[in-house]
């Protein structure tokens, strides 16, 4: 009872102080909200919407169930999740935050996952997409395509390790299943696909409309969180709270033999990964130290993304705290992998032009340049795509309301 009252007082005080800060710094708050909106409608919305819509269609047509049967012998022994986890993992890696959470919640709502399995799955299926790592961070912030390979490998290897660690989550809460020697059955997979499609008997037009409405609704929520945390990050800096905590963070970084200059970017990255990565790249610290901190920021994914995930999971019985713990694991593991991969993947290739891995890095540089070009296209055409999609959303929603 006392704890509940303290929580109420804390939340009320926090919201009140934030309102006062917004009134005290209107110009800075407005500029921060514009930065958040700029990121959302240029990049986040146009890059995530196609994946969300296609995912909903694949679920409705039974393709995900088909994939689940095929991948069951792989996903179950490795991560102790059903085979559909392979689909969620692939879509989460391709589209980025918070696609893994949305798809996991969707699978849980359809009871294709238990609550424990969903908590395991969501812990390692949320990650930064290659477009952001190569296009925005490596080329855009660090101006070095080769860094993208180190960051990407460290990020995804860390994610795999998190999945292997979280397979032990909830072992005592979940009843043991009898082990079967059932292998991959294409015939059974097709049967499951057909049953799922017949069970979801919505016409194609209705299914597509539902997919668009659900996806845009989720993206509007994501946009609100991005803008909110962009403003919150700016306010914390203006009232010197970031600088205060940076004193303690700098001591911690010194214990790890990292540059204390990275303390402020590190704290900013705890709230929002884009700003944190950008600030980290602008410091005077050594390149290795900046890559290590950026890897942690990408793995931790920031309170902004975590708030988005918490909002999505709140519609189910999936608990948030295992996801939060997994993000801490991911941050540290990605940083460790960055340190281990730095010399073989970056320094050796940079120092020796005759090294046999140079052609690989030429390919990486070409891929990074392609990602950078795609990133620039999103920044130029993304707003147009977003406005047209929102216009379509208003039309579909109006029709649904009139039909009722």
Q: If you had to describe this structure to a student in words, what would you say it looks like?
A:
It is built from 17 helices and no strands. With 404 residues, it is mostly helical. Helix 5 runs antiparallel to helix 6 and helix 10 crosses helix 17. The mean pLDDT is 84. It comes from Bacillus suaedaesalsae. InterPro entries: Gate_dom (IPR011642), Spore_IM_YlbJ (IPR014226). This is Sporulation integral membrane protein YlbJ.
List the keywords.
transmembrane helix, Gate_dom, mainly alpha, 404 residues, Spore_IM_YlbJ, single chain, 17 helices, membrane
Low-confidence regions: none
The largest sheet, given as strand count, sense and whether it forms a barrel, is:
none
Please give the share of residues in helix. over 70%
Q: Structural class of the helices, strands and pairings?
A: mainly alpha
Secondary-structure element order, as H and E? HHHHHHHHHHHHHHHHH
Looking at the structure, what is the overall shape? globular
**Over all CA atoms, what is the radius of gyration?**
22 Å
InterPro entries: Gate_dom (IPR011642), Spore_IM_YlbJ (IPR014226)
Protein name: Sporulation integral membrane protein YlbJ
Organism: Bacillus suaedaesalsae
Keywords: Membrane, Transmembrane, Transmembrane helix
């Amino acid at each position: 009872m006392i704890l509940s009252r303290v929580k109420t007082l804390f939340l009320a005080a926090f919201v009140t102080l934030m309102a006062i800060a917004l009134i005290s710094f209107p110009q800075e708050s407005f500029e921060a909200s514009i930065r958040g909106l700029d990121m959302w409608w240029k990049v986040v919305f146009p890059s995530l919407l196609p994946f969300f819509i296609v995912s909903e269609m694949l679920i409705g047509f039974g393709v995900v169930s088909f994939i689940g049967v095929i991948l069951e012998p792989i996903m179950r022994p490795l991560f102790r999740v059903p085979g559909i986890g392979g689909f969620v993992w692939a879509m989460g890696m391709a589209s980025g935050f918070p696609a893994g959470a949305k798809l996991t919640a969707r699978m849980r709502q359809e009871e294709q996952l238990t609550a424990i399995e969903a908590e395991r799955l969501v812990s390692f299926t949320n990650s930064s997409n290659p477009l952001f790592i190569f296009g925005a961070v490596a080329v855009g912030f660090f101006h070095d395509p080769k860094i993208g390979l180190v960051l990407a490998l460290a990020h995804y290897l860390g994610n795999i390790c998190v999945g292997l660690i979280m397979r032990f989550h909830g072992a005592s809460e979940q009843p043991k299943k009898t082990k079967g020697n059932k292998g991959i059955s294409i015939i059974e997979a097709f049967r499951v696909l057909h049953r799922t499609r017949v069970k979801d008997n919505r016409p194609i037009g209705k299914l597509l409309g539902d997919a668009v409405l659900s996806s845009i609704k989720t993206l509007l929520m994501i946009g609100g969180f991005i803008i909110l945390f962009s403003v919150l990050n700016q306010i914390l800096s203006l009232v010197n709270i970031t600088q205060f905590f940076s004193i303690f963070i700098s001591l911690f970084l010194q214990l790890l033999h990292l540059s204390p200059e990275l303390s402020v970017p590190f704290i900013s990255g705890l709230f929002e990964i884009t700003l944190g990565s950008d600030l980290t790249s602008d410091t005077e610290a050594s390149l290795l130290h900046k890559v290590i901190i950026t890897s942690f920021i990408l793995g931790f994914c920031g309170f902004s993304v975590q708030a988005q995930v918490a909002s999505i999971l709140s519609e189910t019985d999936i608990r948030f705290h295992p996801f939060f713990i997994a993000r801490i694991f991911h941050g540290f593991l990605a940083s460790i992998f960055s340190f281990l991969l730095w010399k073989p993947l970056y320094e050796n290739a940079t120092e020796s032009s005759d090294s046999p891995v140079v052609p690989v890095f030429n390919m990486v540089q070409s891929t990074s340049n392609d990602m950078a070009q795609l990133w620039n296209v999103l920044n130029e055409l993304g707003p147009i795509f977003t406005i047209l999609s929102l216009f379509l959303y208003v039309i579909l929603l109006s029709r649904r309301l009139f039909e009722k």
